[in-house]
Backbone:
């Protein structure tokens, strides 16, 4: 378990100032731990250097698993395990299988994406999230910088934050 993590926290009032500050701070070689915002800021993930999410790939794989399981289940049950001739149709006719196949595809894709998101985001029911500033859920943008990941001192990072438009600079220990 992590203990004694020291962060410098910059509070920003405007998203445009935040976007320019991220560029300026990263340009000075400071590694930003995370930026918290009360609403989505267009272009923030590109400025922070985040890669495209692989969650759609996981959704496709879970969906294909649902499709395969649905077809396998229906073909096995209606074609081999308990075959019944209904209206002179084949035992394993695909058109009647479409609704169940669609529903199981959507179900497994949705549940798989949610579970994958929780695992990747480290969101456990017993883990309490770090709250750098309560105003990040209301009207302020919060930038957290881990002091252990940077070579500059706390005061130097604080000055860089102020120079780039931070209205407040605080220190937070976890």
Residues:
């Amino acid at each position: 378990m992590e203990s004694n993590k020291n962060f410098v926290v910059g509070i920003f009032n405007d998203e445009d100032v935040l976007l320019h500050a991220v560029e300026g701070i990263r340009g000075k070689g400071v590694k930003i731990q995370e930026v918290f915002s009360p609403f989505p800021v267009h272009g923030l993930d590109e400025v922070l250097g985040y890669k495209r999410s692989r969650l759609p790939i996981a959704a496709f794989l879970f969906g294909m698993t649902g499709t395969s399981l649905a077809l396998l289940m229906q073909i096995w049950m209606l074609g081999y395990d308990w075959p019944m001739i209904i209206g002179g149709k084949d035992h394993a006719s695909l058109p009647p299988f479409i609704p169940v196949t669609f529903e199981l595809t959507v179900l497994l894709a949705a549940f798989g994406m949610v579970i994958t998101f929780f695992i990747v985001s480290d969101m456990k029911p017993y883990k309490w999230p770090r709250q750098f500033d309560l105003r990040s859920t209301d009207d302020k943008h919060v930038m957290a910088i881990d002091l252990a990941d940077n070579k500059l001192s706390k005061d130097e990072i604080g000055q860089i934050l102020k120079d780039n438009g931070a209205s407040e600079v605080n220190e937070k220990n976890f």
Observations:
- The radius of gyration is 25 Å.
- The longest strand covers residues 6-12.
- The mean pLDDT is 90.
- The beta strands are 6-12, 34-36, 141-146, 168-173.
